[in-house]
Amino acid sequence: MEAAPCQTSSVKGLEHGTREKEHSTVTRKVPRDVQMDIEYLYEVVPQLSRVFRITDKIGEGTFSSVYLGEAQITSGEREKFALKHLIPTSHPVRIAAELQCLTVAGGKENVMGVTYCFRKDHHVVIVMPYVEHQAFVDIVGTLSYEEVRQYIYHLLKALKHIHKFGIIHRDIKPTNFLYNRRENKYALVDFGLAQGTPDTQIQLLKVVKAKAHRAGGGSAGKCEDSQGKQAQVPLPPNKRSPVPHSSTKAAVKKPCTKHNKELLGLSKTSRSVFGERNLNSINHAKNPSDKIEGHLVKPSKADDISARKLASTKRRAVPSRGPAASQKPKSAALNPPLTCNCYMSDRICNICLSRKQQVAPRAGTPGFRAPEVLTKCPNQGTAIDMWSAGVILLSLLSGRYPFFKASDDLVALTQIMTIRGSRETMQAAGKFGKAVMCSRELPRLDLRILCETLRGVRPCGEDSLPAEFRASRHPADAKQDLTDPAATQSSQSRTDTSKSTGRLQDRGWDSVPDDMYDLLDKLLDLNPETRITADEALQHPVFKDLSDE
Ligand code: ADP
Ligand code: MG
Ligand code: ZN
Questions:
Q1: To bridge 444 with a disulfide, which of 37, 148, 339, 421 should be the other Cys (CB 3.0-4.6 Å)?
Q2: Are residues 180 and 132 in contact, defined by beta-carbon separation less than 8 angstroms?
Q3: CA 203 to ligand 2 centroid distance, Å
Q4: Do residues 305 and 318 make contact, with C-beta atoms less than 8 angstroms apart?
Q5: Could you state, in order of their start, the residue ranges of all structural domains in the chain?
Q6: How many other C-beta atoms lie within 10 A of the C-beta of residue 175?
Q7: What percent of the chain stands above pLDDT 70?
Q8: The pTM is what?
Q9: CATH of the domain spanning 8-129, picked from 3.40.30.10, 3.40.367.20, 3.90.850.10, 3.30.200.20
C-alpha cells in the first residue's frame, strides 16, 4: 500500500454519517480544553466529522495529539479508533515513513496497524484500532512475575517482527508499548522516530535517511549552538584548574567553536566525571569530534524534534553520514593522532578545538538510550531497541519506573555506569570506538540483588547495595533532585506493597528464576555487538514454555 497522502473519501471498513450531529455532546464529560482541541481537529480535518464521533483526547506528546474516536463499521457495529493528529510541521517524508511502517509491518505480532489516514493541507490524522491500555506507571508495582514475563515476551515478539523488516524503532519505552492487562493485549506504537537498517524493507525509511543525509550534509561545516551545545561535567578535584576553561567560556558566544560549554546541574552530584573520546581512527580523521576531559555533547529535545521534522534547516544529520560527505579535505593538523595533547588533562588543546562534532542519531528518550546512542556512535542498529527493552525489564523486575530518570545523555550515561559498572562501560565504549571516563570507580551491581532490594523482597542490608539504592526504598526521598544521578534512582513509582494486589510471594516475586536475570543481563549488554537480539531472546530458556505460542 502506498503511504502517500491520504484520501478523503470512502473509508474502507468505515461508514459515513455516523457522527452525532453535535459532536461536542460527548458521553463522558471532558474538560473544556479537550473539547476545544476536538473542535479544532474537526475544523482542520473536516472530513473526520463524517466518520467519527471524537470523544476524548488520549495522548498528547511533542509530535502528536491522539484522540479517541468512534465510528460505525460496515457490519453496523460501533468501534473505537485512535486518531493520531500529527503536528503540522512534521516532514511529509517522515509522516509517510511512519505510515509505511504501520502498513507494512503493523497489524500483527503485537505491532500496531493502521486503518486509514486523513489529510487536509498539512494536517494528517492516522487512524488506528484503539487499544485500551493502562498507564505503565500505575501498574508496574502491582504486576505478578508471570505478568512481567508475558509482557517482556510480547515486547520481544514485536521487536523481532519489526527488526525483520529492517526497522529500528528508536523510541522503545512503555508509553509506546500499549498493554491491556485484562485482555493480555499488547501493541507497539509510534514509528515517528524509526529508521531503517541498510537493508530495510521499508522503502520510505531509506528516503528518510537520504533526506536527513542531505539536510546534514549541507551543514557539515556549520557550527551548532542551541542544538549542538556541549556539556561539561565537573572534573575530579585533582584535575580541576583554578579557573576551569575560562578560555572556552568566551567561546560560547563565538560561532564555530566546538568546545562551547555549559554547566549541567550534574555538578551538584559530585559523583561522576567522565567524558568521551572517539578512538575510531576513521571517524577521527574524517569527522573528528572526540572530546576530552569530562564532556559530552549535550542532547536536547530539539534533536528529537528535528529528527521528526527533518527540517531543511536542521543542523544535525540523523543517520550515519558518508564519512567524506561534502567535507573539504583536511590538513594534517586536523587529522590528529589518536592521543592528542590534552587527552586526560583539564585543558583543551588546539587540535581538539578545531575538531568537528560527531554526527550520529540520538533520537529517543535519554533514560532508554543505549550506551552507543548516548556516546553518539555512528553505527547504530536494531540493538539499540534491545537495550531499551532491557531498561523496561529492569523497571518491571525492580518495580521502579522510570528506572533511569535522566534529563540528558550525560546523566543517563552516569546512571548506566552506576548499575553496569564504570570500568565495564569504559571497556565496552572502547569496543565501539568511544572513550568514556569516570572519576571514580563504580562497581557493577548484581542485578538480582538490585531488583530484589528495590522491590522489597530482600532486606536492604548495609553491604548489599550502594547507599543511594538503599535510601531510595524509603518513600521520604521520592522527591529528590532529578539532576542527581544517585537521587534519580529513587522512583516516582516504587513498589508499594500495601497497594499491590497480594503479597510479594503470592505474585511470584520471591522465586524469580536466575534465567530472568540472565536475560536482563544480556539485554543490558553494554556492547551492541554482543547484545542479545530479539530472535535470540525469544529462544532464551526463560521463555521455554512460551516459544510455540
Ligand atoms: P507520539 O509520537 O506523540 O508519542 P504515539 O503514537 O506514541 O504518539 O501516541 C501517544 C499516546 O497515544 C500513546 O502513548 C498512547 O497512550 C496513545 N495511543 C497511541 N496509539 C494508540 C492506539 N492505537 N490505541 C490507544 N491508544 C493509543
Ligand atoms: Mg510515543
Ligand atoms: Zn586535545
A1: 421
A2: yes
A3: 22
A4: no
A5: 8-129, 272-318+335-360, 366-549
A6: 15
A7: 62
A8: 0.73
A9: 3.30.200.20
Which three three-digit cell numbers place residue 82?
485512535
Is the CB of residue 393 less than 8 Å from the CB of residue 152?
Answer: yes
Which residues fall inside 5 Å of ion ligand 2, going by CB?
176, 190
Single-letter residue type at 17? G
pLDDT at 241 over 70: no
- Which of 87-101, 125-139, 309-323, 440-454 has the weakest average pLDDT? 309-323
Alpha-carbon distance 398 to 384, whole Å?
21
Q: Which ligand is nearest to the CA of 83?
A: 1
8-129 against 366-549: fold identical: no
- The ligand placed nearest to the CA atom of residue 307 is 1
* Nearest residue (CA) to ligand 1, atom 21: 82
Q: Which residue has the higher pLDDT, 474 or 357?
A: 357
Ligand 1 pocket, mutate which of 66, 95, 180 (most atoms under 8 A from CB): 66
Which pLDDT value is given to residue 311? Answer: 39
How far apart CA 170 and CA 385 sit, in angstroms, is 6
Q: How confident is the model at residue 124 (pLDDT cuts 50, 70, 90)?
A: very high
Closest C-alpha to ligand 1, atom 10: 59
pLDDT of residue 231: 29
Compute the distance from residue 343 Cα to the ligand 3 centre, in Å.
Answer: 6
- Active-site residue set: 171
**C-alpha–C-alpha distance, residues 95 and 80, integer Å:** 23
CA of 190 to the centre of ligand 1 (A): 7
Ligand 1: atom nearest CA of 193 is: 2
**What fold, for 366-549?**
Transferase(Phosphotransferase); domain 1 (1.10.510)
Q: For residue range 190-207, list pLDDT tens digits in order.
A: 999 999 999 999 999 999
Mean pLDDT of all residues in 448-476: 73
Q: How far does residue 359's CA lie from ligand 3's centre (Å)? A: 19
Mean pLDDT value across the chain: 74
Burial 490-520 (b: 16+ CB within 10 A, else e): bbebbbebeebeeebeebbbeebeeebbbbb
**What's the rounded mean pLDDT across residues 431-436?**
91
pLDDT tens digits along 269-326? 222 222 222 322 223 333 333 332 233 433 344 455 666 665 333 333 333 333 333 4
| Measured distance CA(212)–CA(217) in Å, rounded | 8
Q: Which residues does a 6 A CB cutoff place in the pocket of ligand 1?
A: 58-59, 61, 63-64, 66, 82, 84, 112, 128-131, 175-176, 178, 189-190, 192
Per-residue confidence (pLDDT) for residue 344, from 0 to 100: 66
